[in-house]
Input
Amino acid sequence: MSEEELSSKKFWTIPNVVTILRLCLLPVFLWLLFGAHRQVAAGFLLAFLGVTDYVDGYVARRFHQVSEFGKILDPVADRVLVATSVIATMWVNAVPAWFGIATLTREVLVSIAVLLIASLGGARIDVLWIGKCGAFALMVSYPMFLGACGPAWWQRGFMVGAWGFGIIGLVLSWAAAIRYLAPARAALSRGRAARRAAKPPTA
Output
């Protein structure tokens, strides 16, 4: 068995530890926001959680630590963090409801589509570059919305940045969701063809 195959079966890899750390810090984010009412601090922590999402992915690819567990854990952690952070930010009125709903609706639709394709035997779909850009812009905008909660002069710049990144991120994310339609159909066709090829011929 190759070193890469052995790594894929490991649980305690650096990327998995980073992902678990992100999930453990989520209650701290909620406490800062609702318990301590420290919205700016919560925004900085949310930004840190977003950055570490890219860190664990880079480490996994760069040091060949992609694991089977990580392939499941990382997307689940991403969905939990996105849903929690968006709902929490909406709850404290740091972001307009329509903006948060538009973000969540896109995430829910994509998640349902991924599960549906997998259940129908579809092949894995590669992440689109435009989708990555949209996710990054939204990851920047939500912490900035929280950082803009306050009367200080420097927080006005956060609000401008939040809207700038937010609108761009929302447009790119929905554009990516629409562009996923063609690859999704192709993935279903490839998955079904692979299953037919693997099926033993009947006598």
About this structure: Helices lie at 3-8, 14-35, 39-62, 68-91, 97-119, 129-147, 153-179, 181-198. The two ends are 36 Å apart (CA to CA). DSSP finds eight helices and no strands in the chain.
